Amino acid sequence: MPRIALATYDPGAEPSRDRDLPVLVRALADAGADAVALPWDGAGTDWSAFDLVVIRSTWDYTWRAEEFVAWVERVGKVTRVANQAEVVRWNTDKRYLGHLAEAGVPVVPTRYIAPGDPAELPVDHDFVVKPTFGAGARFAARYTPAERGTALRQLARMHDEGLTAMVQPYVSGIDVSGERALQFFGGRLLHASRKRAVLAPGTAYDADKVAHPDLRPWTPAPAELAVAERALAAVPEAPELLYARVDLVDGEDGRPRVMELELVEPNLFLFLHPGSVGTVAEAILAAALTP
User: pTM, whole model, 2 decimals?
Assistant: First the structure.
């Protein structure tokens, strides 16, 4: 009976935001595994006692990115971890979008403004400012050129905290066709979903946001699947990934572009796709049993 740990975050007194976690633990048990969900930063956990540690919902890591990556690397030295530590280190910093662009993958155009860099912002179109380390639209906001002063204050706040900012044009196609999330597990397309735009005009960058508004099942078009597969093939050294999520939006030309490539702890949305639970459990079990 393989021992499998699903790494999550510690919600404290609040209910966990990972609705899939108890369902997945039960499915793994039904498949013949000894599975348990544990906080990644829990004191005293012997990760070497597990055949596989799956990074499942470590959704507080973006505030402590270096600490988290160091934890993944430590775990990877004593047992198998998925996804692999080198993938996690590459993917936690959203400057990976530049790597994808260099590899010819269509992505949302992105500029990076590190602390000390000139704060150059667009003057002729709406734009988005967000950190290179972030999740759930944390420290992200949408601006018009007339709101440049507010955007500069956001940049100053981020730079004071040592964060590098990403500046992207606001992709208006998201208001029409939404954002599509293509999920892969065990090297195959698992399912896909679509949601409305997260960043509403006038919402403050430090306000809480609904991460997945109006989330619904989606059947990806061939062009969407092709872009997603190109993005996955461009991951350095083409590692074997247990899971991945590719978020797509339509560019000004109407063609899909990568908004984000999530290889660390993507929400699986199994509550929306209950038929995928068995496939996910089987893939995790197979990874745990792989010599």
Answer: 0.94
